[in-house]
Amino acid sequence: MNTGTAVSDQPRTEDEALSTRDSLPHFAAVPVLLVVAAKVVGTMAVAGSYGFQRDELYYLACARHLAWGYFDFPAVVPVLARLNVLLFGTGVATLRLFSVLAGAAVVLLAALIARELGGGSRAQVLAAFAVLFNPLILGANILFQTVSFDQLTWSTAIYVAVRLLRTGDRRLWPVFGAVFGLGLETKYTILALAAGLLAGFLLSPQRRQLATPGPFLAAGIALLILLPNLIWQVQEGWPSLTYVLQHSGDTGTRPQFVAETLLLLGPIGLPLAVLGAWELFSRKWLRPLAWAAVLTPLLLLAANGKSYYAGPIYPLLLAAGSVRTVRLLARKRLHFAVLLTLLTVATAALVPLALPVYPLQRAVNDGIISARTDYADMLGWQGIVADTARAYRRIPAAQRARTTIVASNYGEAGAIDLYGARYGLPHALSGDLTYYLWKPAQVPEAAVVAVGFPRNFMARYFRSVTPAGTIGMPYQFHNQEYGQPILICRDPTTSFDVFFANIRGWG
User: Fold this and answer.
1) Reduced to 3 states, what is the DSSP secondary structure of residue 488?
2) Are 158 and 289 in contact (CB under 8 A)?
3) Which pTM does this prediction carry?
4) What does the alpha-carbon distance between residue 314 and residue 262 come to, in Å, rounded to a whole number?
5) What is the spatial distance between Cα 142 and Cα 351, in angstroms, rounded to a whole number?
6) What is the pLDDT of residues 318-352, one digit of tens each?
7) Whole domain around residue 484: which residue ranges?
């Protein structure tokens, strides 16, 4: 394949597009990599702000309990957290490096997808800029969560799919299967992309490819990679399925899904996405991806999924929209420069919501912390551990070795596990999500320090329930932890196992 052949951004007929599938435009390495570098440097500059987010504490806890699965996600992300800690120790900014690098890779892949679609240097740069400034992707990559790595596996799978459709190289099917399998081990929502692609092939002339060995080989490889997680699910009684069913009513309404999708695409991303769908549908060889780009969000909408679940399809639409836009603006470099400027300016107002660029007090005073729950969930964790330690020290020294700390949610438990050693605290127990599996067989019952449980609830299981403090927050900010009680509980009315079974939660 001649990768050095320059391909113009001028419009081409379908026949011309088909005849040049074996040639690609030059890769605009310098400007695209500058955008990628800006992503890394700009995000890492503020990555240490505010503190660990609730979910990050949970991923760190999961990294200390490596397994083939967890209640609410598969195995890959805790492994990445474990690797990150081994390499860099436990730091807020360093933990987020991997998610920032994943986001940077998505920016690069968007440019490469645009190139596969025949986009020249300007289309590649516009695609990179569009993904760099996409509100969802910009905000997601500041946190170490499954979302960033899910976006990366989707974008990689889409890139392989575009190459497969462009070149017809059947050797790419095993690669697609391997990428998809890793995606399944990262977050199960990539199944929506599989369903969208399957529908796209069935609705397009490329349906004949489904009769070849390639798709079956890809499916087999993906299933083989997922197999350890499936075995774990069977052994544990399919907890991830239970988790999904438990949260089926917590994802918001369908009108909310649509409204949030429009907001998450952003003021420039929305028209680019529309142009991207136009570009994909206008080229017959891209019809499977065209249908997938439209049907995947609709499938998630029908399943009452969260709006950000569809976010990983955005790079495809933005890349295709960039190709179409540059063709519409062919030879009008001033217009292209204006477009990049508008993209930057239009996103600037959203940056404080996407990245923690403001000092904490200003973010609280300006309502930014209230506007984004993720920020609110970064506050106060070390203070919660200190409050718990004060309650723990109220217990006579002779009884502390037989005292158990029980937290109402994985954030509290994760914070105690991370910071508690400096106060001499034991590891926390919790019934929340996968923490439920980590209870030891024997639990000392001299006393229980209960964090975040209502007093009347604990009184059902202990005759003596004594208030030992309440959880405070910086600047008296009222997040979901603020004001929650810390209790010392003694003289149980039932066994600890019975009590623990009644605090099991699903997040």
Assistant:
1) strand
2) yes
3) 0.91
4) 11
5) 12
6) 999 999 999 988 877 767 778 788 777 877 778 88
7) 381-501
